[in-house]
Amino acid sequence: MGEYSKIEKYIVASDVGDVRDGIGIEVYSGSEMLLEVFRDDTKKTREVTLYKKDLDLELVEQAIALFKKEIPWEFQE
Predict the structure, then answer these.
(1) How far is CA 12 from CA 27, 53, 67, 69, in A?
(2) What does the alpha-carbon distance between residue 61 and residue 21 come to, in Å, rounded to a whole number?
(3) How far apart are CA 26 and CA 22, in angstroms?
(4) How many CB atoms lie within 10 A of CB 72?
(5) Residue 1 above 80 pLDDT?
C-alpha cells in the first residue's frame, strides 16, 4: 500500500475570483469530488471542505498530507 493508498484520484486546482483566491487539491472517487483542501491567499487560511458525509479519517489525513506535499505553504500576495 502506498503513502496515499486511500486517494483514488486528485487534481491540483487554483481558484481566482470574487469569493476566494488560492490553490488546493480536490480528491475524487470516480467523478465524485469527496473533499478539497485549499489555501486561501485572500483570507490567509488553509481549509478542508467535505463534499461527502462520513469520510474515512485515513483518507482525510492522506489528503492533508498530500496537500502539504503538493501545495506551497506560504501565502501569495
Answers:
(1) 9, 22, 9, 11
(2) 24
(3) 13
(4) 9
(5) no
Q: How many helices (H) and strands (E) does the chain have?
A: 1, 4
Alpha-helical segments (H) within the chain: 57-70
27-34 average pLDDT score? 97
26: DSSP letter: E
Q: How far apart are CA 70 and CA 23, in angstroms?
A: 10
What are phi and psi for residue 54, nearest 5 degrees?
A: 60, 50
Longest dimension (CA), the chain: 41
Sign of the alpha-carbon dihedral angle for 20, 26, 30, 33: negative
Query: pLDDT tens digits for 32-72?
Result: 999 999 999 999 999 999 999 999 999 999 999 999 999 99
* Cβ-contact 48, 64 below 8 angstroms: yes
